[in-house]
Design a protein that fits this description.
Layout: E1 11-15, E2 18-21, E3 26-29, E4 36-39, E5 45-48
Antiparallel strand pairs: 1-2, 2-3, 3-4, 4-5
Length: about 55
């Protein structure tokens, strides 16, 4: 699985249809629109636009 932000291949599965990129430290989904999430300090996920990164 490639990261939609950096196109890196250092990704790991963290949930059903959700992956984590070890290169740019984001979590992303392969369902629907393929949302990308920033992981907050408290562990919550905040949806971000791919254009913001």
């Amino acid at each position: 699985m490639q990261c939609p932000i950096c196109n890196g291949k250092q990704t790991g599965k963290v949930g059903s249809d959700q992956y984590y990129c070890w290169s740019c430290y984001v979590e992303f989904s392969t369902r629907g629109d393929g949302e990308v999430y920033e992981i907050c300090e408290d562990g919550n996920l905040m949806a971000i636009n791919a254009d913001e990164v």
